[in-house]
Design brief:
By secondary structure, the chain is α/β, with parallel strands linked by helices. The chain has six helices and eight strands. Bound molecules: S-adenosylmethionine (SAM).
Amino acid sequence: MDWEALYQQKDTGWDRGAVSPALKHWFEDGNITPNQRILIPGCGRGYEVVALAKRGFDVTALDLAPSAIAAVRQALHDANVSATLVCSDLFDYQPKHSFDIVYEQTCLCALPVEQREHYEQCLYTWLKPNGTLLFSMMQTGAAGGPPFHCDWLDMHELFAEKRWQWQQEPPFIISRPNGLRFELGFTLRCQKGGL
Ligand SMILES: C[S@@+](CC[C@H](N)C(=O)[O-])C[C@H]1O[C@@H](n2cnc3c(N)ncnc32)[C@H](O)[C@@H]1O
């Protein structure tokens, strides 16, 4: 998939044009608290990057499409706030430090299914012990993609319980403007030993 071409052609149907309602939910339920270091892989135009930067968070936003990163850079400038921007394939990204939170908003569903295991390893590596994965899990109910449907059982197998602690509560529904697709909001904790 040539994501940069999609941005240049303005063929970005996934883009809400606004902050996802999931962000408000995760603030309200206490999953996002002050002074956390947050990574947003596949950030797109980065509405959540700007919203978090405005609240003073240390945010790193990553996307492989230069046009997406340019849009985030402009939005940060317009809002007079800052974040760390990385224009890279996420599979090449090796941060110097780990994160308290990874905000995963429809990046996994953009990847070819055969790359999912590698992506899970990246997420696990990027997070601190007991770090939080805020996961907006795309539901299309259709074959093919992107976006590729994130079947709950497939996700449970991918994010296995020996590495990830899943929330006990049911997920919440994250609506989309066109109403056909939606996401399920899950919180997972990264189970690995500290230093
Ligand atoms: C479906 S869009 C979601 C964008 C944004 N998170 C949102 O919710 O609007 C997927 C994004 O992931 C980016 N992406 C896809 N594959 C990537 C990769 N291997 N490394 C980094 N970014 C990638 C695309 O450029 C695109 O911006």
